[in-house]
Amino acid sequence: MVENSFPAGFLWGGAVAAHQLEGAWQAGGKGVSVADVMTAGENGVPREITKGVVAGKNYPNHDAIDFYGHYKEDIALFAEMGFKCFRTSIAWTRIFPNGDEAEPNEAGLKFYDDLFAECHKYGIEPVVTLAHFEMPWHLVEKYHGFGNRKTIDFFVRFATTCFKRYRNQVKYWMTFNEIDNQAAFNNDFSMATNSGLLLDNDSDNEAEMYQAAHYEVVASALAVKEGKRINPDFMIGTMINYTPAYPASSAPADVLMAQRVNQRRFWFSDVQVWGEYPREVETYIQRRGFRPDITEEDRIVLKEGTVDYVGFSYYQSMTVSAKKGDVDQITDPMDIVVENPYLESSDWDWPIDPIGLRYGLNDLTDRYHLPLFIVENGLGAVDQVEANGEIHDPYRIDYLRKHLEEVRKAVTLDGVDLMGYTPWGCIDLVSAGTGQMSKRYGFIYVDKDDDGNGSLARSRKDSFYWYQKVIKTNGADL
Ligand code: BGP
C-alpha cells in the first residue's frame, strides 16, 4: 500500500446541490425553480415536470431536508468529519427569483453570506456550482430557457452578482452542473434541468439541444471572463458527468463506436477547456443540417473564457456495441448501450466500476492537461436504522474505499493532478433522478421518508466514522 499519498492541502469534503437539500422553497423571497415543479417519481415511474405547481402533487424539493433551517448543525457535522471543503450550489431563484429582474434579492444573498461564513468558521472552503438543475421556472416558461439567446444575459448577471458578493468568501466555482448530460437529448429530465428546454415531440430535440448547449457554453465563457476580472485568484471549472463509453468487445467496430459516443459527450467540456468546437461535432452538426446560431463573436468569447480546472462526477461507466447501430448514423447514445458482464450494479442498476475512475482520471488528464476535481462519486442505497438507532452501511464504505484506492493509484502511480474529492450527497437528500429520499448517499442519515414524513433528525452512519478516519490520515488509511 502506498502511504500518505494524497498531496498536502488535498480538498477532502462532500457535495450537495441547493435544490436537493435546502427546502424553504419560498423563504426570503425565493422564486420557483424548475426543480420546484418536479414531482417525486415512484417505483419506476419517472419524475413529472408539471407546468407550474399543481395542488395535491408531491414536490419533494419544496421542503427537502430543510438545510436552510439546519445548516449550522449540518456544517458542524461536516467539520466533525474533518471536511476541508463543502461543495454546494447557489439557488438561482434565491438571488433572482424570476431570473430576469434587474436587481438581486438581498435576503437570498444574505443566506449564502451566512452559510459561507459558517463554513469558514471551521476552515471549510466552499466550492460553488452556479447552476445545478435549478433554473428559474419563469425563464423556462417565458424564454424557453437556454433555447433563447437572452438567457445568456440572465445567467451572466446572476453569475456576476455572486462573484462580486462572494469575492472573498469563495475561491472555487463551477458554472453548470453536468453540462454534458444533454447528450441524452431525448430525456425530458436532462433537458429541463440542464438547459430549461421542455421537449416538444414534434420538433427535433437534437437540433434544439445543440442550440441551447451552445448558448450555455457561451454563457459559461462570459461568466468565466467576468469572474476572472472580479477576482483573478478565482478557480472556475467546467463540471461534467464523466461516464466513459467502453467497447463491448475488442472488435474495431465496437472500439470506434465507443470513441464516437465519447466524442458526443466530451464536446461540451472540449469547448469549455479548448475554447473551440472539436472537429467531429462541428462536422456532425453541419452534416445533419442543423443551423445553430453560432456567431463569430461567440467564437471569440469561447476562446477568452476557458476554464481553470475540470470538475466531474463519476458514478459508473457504460458499454456500447456496434451491433446495435451504425457509427455514422447514431444519434442517441442510449440506443447502443449493452450490459457489461464484468461489472456488478447498484440497486438502481448503475454499473459499479472503481477502475473506471482511475481510467477517467488518466483520460481527462491526457485530454485536457488541467487539474481535476472529483466533485461527485457515491453509492445510492437504502439504509436501515437499527433498533438502537445505529446505521450500518458497509456497502457504502466498500464502494467509496474501492474508488478511493483507484484514485490513490492515479495520483501516486500515474501522476494525476487532483485537487480534491467530494463524495455526493454527504448528507442524505432528495435524489435528483427519482425525487425520493430512500435513495440515500449520505454519511449522515436524515429521518425523512418518501412521503415527506419524519423528524428530520440527523444521525451518523458507520460511513461517517470511516470517512472521518480517511480524512484524518489524508487517505493513507482507507
Ligand atoms: C448527479 C447530479 C446530482 C445527484 C447525483 C445522483 O447526476 O449532479 O444532482 O443527484 O447525480 O443522482 P440521483 O440523485 O439520481 O441518484
From TrEMBL:
This is 6-phospho-beta-glucosidase. InterPro entries: GH, GH_1_N_CS, Glyco_hydro_1, Glyco_hydro_1_AS. PROSITE patterns: GLYCOSYL_HYDROL_F1_1, GLYCOSYL_HYDROL_F1_2. Gene3D superfamilies: Glycosidases. Pfam families: Glyco_hydro_1. Belongs to the glycosyl hydrolase 1 family. Keywords: Glycosidase, Hydrolase. The gene is pbg4. The active site is at E376. It comes from the Bacteria.
